[in-house]
Design a protein that fits this description.
alpha+beta, six-stranded antiparallel β-barrel, four-stranded parallel beta sheet
C-alpha cells in the first residue's frame, strides 16, 4: 500500500529542542507539567499549536482522544443497575494514561481544553476519572478556534465540567452499545458473521435502500419536446440564434406524449410564420449561501472537490488544529469543524467587511452584515459556523504551507465565508413568447402555437464574484440559458430548424455521500460528528458500495435493512431515530434525565428483541457466480463477501481452498513491469488505490489513477488523473494536461 503522510504534507524538520517539545506535547512517554499549569487537549497537533501560544508556566499534553471506553469484548453496561457503564482503559492507552497521571500529579493546576462539544466534554471528564485530577485545582476551558486571542480568552473564562453534556454523551454511548451489542449478534446468527447494526447506521442504510427500491420500481413515462431555432429577420449569418421551446398549443399548455403527436405539430408548422408576441423583463436578486456547517461543508467538498465525507473530516481537522506557517508558527486556520450553526461573531463579520471592501469595492458590501438561520431539524445554534480564523489570511497567502488537498479545502471555506458576507447578486431575466402559425393575425396571443425562450444575465455579480454553490445531479440554473439577443415585440423571426426530441421521466438519483449527509441532516438523524463514521461503516460492512460516487446497496444491505425494519419497526425507523436525537439534545440542555430516558427506550426494545430471537429465520445470502473457473480444480469460482469486501473463492470449498482478491481492471498496463494490468485495490480503511495485478511479484502502487497516455513534455509513458475537471498530471515532471486531449 502507498506510504502516506498526514494530510499529504511532509513534516518539516525543526531544531532538536523543537522536536523534543513536540514529542512531549503529543502525549509521549515524557512526563510533563512538574510544578506547571497542565493543559490537556485531545490531539498532538492541537497540543503543539496551543503550546506555542502559552508561556513557560504552562505545559500542554494530549490525551489522543478518549482515555477510557466501554470494553470491546462485552456490552459493558449494567442493565440491572441503572445502565451503569463499566469503563476501562484500553490496552493501547495504558502507557499514555500512566504518563498523564504522572503529569497531573506534578502539576500545580489542571486545565481541561478538549473540544467544545459533548464528545470533548466527555473526554475531559474521563481524563479526570482516569488520572485522579479531581485532587488538583481543576478548570475547564473551551475555544472555537485555535488562535492566540481565542486561547487566551478561553484561559480567562474557565468553568466547571458540564455534566449535562457528559450525561448526553454517555446516554448516546450506552444507547448505541445496547443496540449494537444486542442486535449485531442476532445478525451474526441469522445472516452471517461480521455484520453490525446501529441506531443511526441502520436508519441511514434504510434511507439508501428505500431510494434504491424507488429506482427499481420506477416506470419511465415517454414525453416529447419541440424546440425551434430562430434568427431575427434579416440577421446576418452566424448571429446568435434564439432557442425556444413549444410552450402552448392554443390556450393549453403543450403536453406532447408521443412522437406521432410531435410529428403532427411539425407538419402543421410547415411554412408557418414566427413573430414575437410579448417580451417580459424582470429583475431578481440572488442571496449568498450561509457559511459552512459540518454537513454543508461535506456536501460542497463532495460536489466541487470530489472529496469523500471522511476525507473532508480529516482535512478540516488538520486545518482546525493548526498548520506551521513559517515565521507565524503553528496557526489554526479555521474555526471548530463539528457544528450545525450558521452564526458568525460580530468581530469576524467586521473583519470580513474590511477584506471585501479592499478586494471587491464598497458596492459589494450589504448595508449591514447578514444573519442566517438554520432550517435543518434539531439544529443547534450554540457555536459558530465554519470560517477562517483570520479572514485577512487569503488562500494564496498560505498556499505554500499547505498540501494541495488542504489548500483546496481552505480555499473553499474562505470563499464561502467571504461570499456569505457580501451583497446580493442582481440578475436580469427575459422571457420571450413567440407566436407561430401559418396565418397569424394581429392578435399574436391567439396564435395556434406559442414558443417560449428565456435568458438571464448577471447585471451585478455581488457575492457571485467570489463563489457559486455546486449543484447536485439534475439541478439546473437559470443562468445556463445565457443572454438573448436584442428583440422587439411583433418582430418577425426566421425559422432555422425544428427539433422534436424524445424524453423519458427519470427516477430519483441514487445518493452520493454528500446527498446522504444532506438527507440525514434534514431528517434529524445523527449529529455533525456522526456523518463520516456512519457512511464509513456502511461501506466497511459492504451494505453499500460506491460506484461512480453513487451509494448502491447490495443484496446484504437489502437483507439486513428489510430484516431489521420488519422485526424492529420502531428502533430503526427514521422518525424514531430522529426523536431519540431530540431527547439526547434535551439531556444535553439539562431538560431531561438520562437514566429514565434509557429506561423508556430499553424496556420495549428488550421485549421486541425477545420476539425477534425466536421469530427470525436463518437467511442465506447467495454467492454470486464469478463467471470464471478455478485454475486449480476447474470448478466455478464464486464472489464472496469477506472482512475487506468481495473476493473470489472456489465453489469446491472446503476440498479446494483457492481464493484470491476480486480485482477491477482499468484497461491500463502496469507502468512498471508492462506485463500485468493496473487494478483497483482498497486499503484497510477502504480508500481506493491502484496496483499491479502481478503483486507481489510487481510492487507498483499509486493513489492516483493511471492514464494510458505518454507525457508530451518529458515522454514518461503514462500520466495520472488529478482533480475532477478532466486534468491529468505527469508523475515524473509534473506537466498538467487534459483527458480530452489524451482521448483525442
Amino acid at each position: 500500500m502507498p506510504t502516506k503522510s498526514t494530510g499529504g504534507k511532509t513534516t518539516r524538520s525543526k531544531s532538536t529542542t523543537s522536536t523534543t517539545k513536540s514529542k512531549a506535547a503529543s502525549g509521549s512517554s515524557t512526563v510533563r507539567g512538574k510544578n506547571k499549569r497542565l493543559v490537556i487537549v485531545e490531539s498532538p497537533a492541537k497540543a503543539r499549536t496551543i503550546e506555542r501560544y502559552l508561556g513557560n508556566e504552562y505545559a500542554v499534553v494530549a490525551s489522543v482522544g478518549h482515555v477510557r471506553d466501554l470494553p470491546k469484548s462485552t456490552m459493558g453496561v449494567d442493565l440491572e443497575n441503572d445502565f451503569t457503564p463499566k469503563y476501562t482503559v484500553p490496552r493501547d492507552k495504558a502507557k499514555l494514561v500512566k504518563d498523564l497521571k504522572a503529569s497531573v500529579a506534578g502539576a500545580s493546576e489542571v486545565i481541561l481544553a478538549t473540544d467544545p462539544d459533548r464528545e470533548g466534554e466527555a473526554i475531559a471528564w474521563h481524563v479526570v476519572q482516569a488520572t485522579g485530577a479531581e485532587t488538583k485545582p481543576l478548570k475547564r476551558v473551551v475555544f472555537h478556534e485555535i488562535t492566540p486571542g481565542a486561547v487566551q480568552a478561553a484561559m480567562n473564562e474557565p468553568r466547571e465540567i458540564d455534566m449535562d453534556l457528559v450525561d448526553a454523551q454517555q446516554a448516546r454511548r450506552v444507547l448505541d452499545r445496547i443496540v449494537g451489542y444486542t442486535v449485531s449478534p442476532l445478525l451474526w446468527k441469522k445472516v452471517k458473521r461480521g455484520l453490525s447494526a446501529g441506531r443511526v447506521q441502520t436508519a441511514a442504510l434504510r434511507i439508501v435502500v428505500d431510494r434504491e427500491r424507488e429506482i427499481q420500481e420506477f416506470n419511465p413515462v415517454e414525453y416529447w419536446s419541440l424546440d425551434a431555432y430562430l434568427l431575427p429577420e434579416g440577421a446576418r449569418a452566424g448571429s446568435t440564434q434564439v432557442k425556444a421551446g413549444l410552450h402552448r398549443i392554443g390556450k393549453d399548455k403543450a403536453d406532447l406524449k408521443t412522437g406521432d403527436h410531435a410529428s403532427t405539430i411539425v407538419a402543421d408548422l410547415d411554412g408557418a410564420a414566427y413573430r414575437i408576441a410579448t417580451i417580459t423583463k424582470r429583475e431578481s436578486q440572488r442571496k449568498p449561501q450561509a457559511p459552512f456547517t459540518t454537513s454543508t461543508l461535506q456536501q460542497e467538498a463532495g460536489r466541487k472537490l470530489g472529496y469523500a465525507v471522511r476525507r473532508t473530516s480529516q482535512l478540516s481537522q488538520e486545518l482546525y488544529e493548526g498548520v506551521d506557517l513559517g515565521a507565524e508558527g503553528q496557526q489554526g486556520l479555521i474555526t471548530y469543524i463539528r457544528t450545525d450553526s450558521t452564526n458568525v461573531s460580530e468581530v469576524a463579520q467586521q473583519a470580513a467587511r474590511v477584506v471585501i471592501e479592499q478586494k471587491f469595492g464598497k458596492d459589494s458590501l450589504p448595508a449591514k452584515p447578514p444573519v442566517y438561520t438554520r432550517k435543518a431539524k434539531g439544529a443547534q445554534e450554540a457555536h459558530e459556523a465554519i470560517r477562517p480564523t483570520d479572514v485577512a489570511r487569503d488562500p494564496e497567502s498560505v498556499k505554500k504551507f499547505l498540501s494541495a488537498p488542504q489548500f483546496r479545502l481552505y480555499q473553499l471555506i474562505w470563499q464561502r465565508f467571504i461570499a456569505s458576507q457580501m451583497a446580493n447578486a442582481i440578475l436580469d431575466g427575459t422571457t420571450v413568447d413567440i407566436a407561430a402559425g401559418r396565418n397569424l393575425g394581429d392578435d399574436l396571443k391567439a396564435a395556434p402555437y406559442t414558443f417560449r425562450a428565456t435568458g438571464s444575465v448577471v447585471r451585478f455579480p455581488g457575492f457571485m464574484a467570489v463563489y457559486q454553490q455546486g449543484r447536485d445531479e439534475g439541478e439546473t440554473d437559470e443562468l445556463d440559458d445565457g443572454a438573448l439577443p436584442n428583440l422587439t415585440e411583433k418582430q418577425r423571426l426566421d425559422l432555422q430548424k425544428l427539433v422534436p426530441e424524445q424524453h423519458f421521466t427519470q427516477p430519483p438519483p441514487r445518493y452520493t455521500e454528500a446527498s446522504l449527509v444532506k438527507a440525514l441532516e434534514e431528517a434529524g438523524i445523527g449529529r455533525p460528528s456522526t456523518y463520516a463514521p456512519t457512511i464509513a461503516t456502511l461501506l466497511a460492512r459492504a451494505y453499500v458500495t460506491l460506484d461512480e460516487k453513487k451509494l448502491i446497496p447490495g443484496e446484504l444491505g437489502f437483507v439486513v435493512s428489510d430484516l431489521l425494519a420488519e422485526h424492529f419497526p420502531n428502533v430503526f425507523d427514521v422518525g424514531f431515530t430522529s426523536q431519540m436525537e431530540e431527547e439526547l439534545d434535551e439531556i444535553a440542555s439539562g431538560d431531561r434525565p438520562w437514566i429514565p430516558t434509557l429506561r423508556e427506550f430499553y424496556d420495549p426494545f428488550n421485549e421486541t428483541m425477545k420476539k425477534a430471537e425466536v421469530s427470525i429465520e436463518r437467511v442465506k445470502i447467495k454467492d454470486e457466480p464469478a463467471g470464471v473457473d478455478c485454475e486449480k480444480c476447474g470448478r466455478p469460482m464464486l464472489i464472496k463477501l469477506g472482512k475487506y469486501g468481495k473476493f473470489l473463492a472456489c465453489s469446491g470449498f472446503p476440498e479446494c481452498r483457492n481464493a484470491k482478491p476480486l480485482l477491477t481492471t482499468i484497461d491500463v498496463k502496469c507502468p512498471t513491469c508492462h506485463e500485468g494490468d493496473v487494478v483497483e485495490r482498497r486499503s484497510k480503511k477502504g480508500r481506493v488505490f491502484y496496483g499491479c495485478s502481478r503483486w507481489p511479484d510487481c510492487e507498483y502502487v499509486s493513489w492516483d489513477k493511471p492514464v494510458d497516455h505518454p507525457c508530451p513534455k518529458c515522454g514518461n509513458p503514462y500520466m495520472v488523473e488529478v482533480g475532477r475537471r478532466g486534468q491529468i498530471k505527469c508523475p515524473a515532471c509534473g506537466h498538467i494536461g487534459s483527458t480530452l486531449v489524451a482521448a483525442s
